[in-house]
Amino acid sequence: MAGQWLLVCHGLITLLVVASFLCGRWPIFQGTIIERIHYFVTFGAYDCFLRFAEYVCGSRGANAILSVEYYCCYRPNPILQIIYLAIIGATYYFIVQSSFAYLPSYYLGEIHRYTSIIAVSVGVILFLLTSFADPGAVKAENVSEYLSAYPYDNIIYSEKECTTCQIAKPARSKHCSICDRCVARFDHHCGWMNNCIGERNTRYFMAFLLWHFLLCVYGTVAIGLVLAGRLKDLRVIHILTVYYGVENSFQDLAPHVAQWLLSSYNTQILLMVFLAVVSLLMAGFFGYHVKLCFTNTTTNEVCYLSLE
What we know:
By secondary structure, the chain is mainly alpha-helical. It is 67% helix and 5% strand. Strand 4 (188-190) and strand 5 (195-197) form a beta hairpin. Helix 1 crosses helix 2.
């Protein structure tokens, strides 16, 4: 029983931290514990760690950490790409290990052994396409093409030259300090892709977000159906109502079924929660970028206008 409560507390704390990280700067949470947790997660924890390292190791230790921070956050590197591949690989491995033994089940057929690997493979392919596709790098050879495609409005964008690339800077382009190149219709630099998102790879990025949202929903529903199949195969409802005298109603059965699932299939429950949370994040990011597409704006332009 203690283990079950530990899982519940872990889930609630995780939900609180994720909600604080994503929503902590909303005006409605100003002055609340949500805002304080957001500050601690985004700035406070790292600042405390840096001070601790300087106290223990001196300035050399702090400088070493700052050097790592510079490499990870301000230079092109594959760290987040490796983390993505590790996350998707480990998640699929745990799903195979914990749930494939019950296929076919009452609600799910054998075919999902194969459709799942196809779905994951498509997700990885979209990830690779977004990561390695040209985002629309502006060079001396193609700058005239982008200048004609994106004329200056002389309001937000006026004729100027990129001081780094030493070429004319088309409207809606931006010089990425991380990639060290100008990108046409620049949206943002995505650390997960180790690439800029611009004119030529936005479609791959949008497909990546949509597919991973659907992939997470598919995984959540599939695991849920596997667990529902176990309830059916093991006649859990029948045993609870006939042998333990539990009333055959949702209100009475739900706590007992939840307790049984948490004690017998805690790995599957954790995977379902993880996939459900990630699906919500993917839905949010995809919805935001759909809005940008409909309004013909970019993240870079939204940030620029918000500072005006």
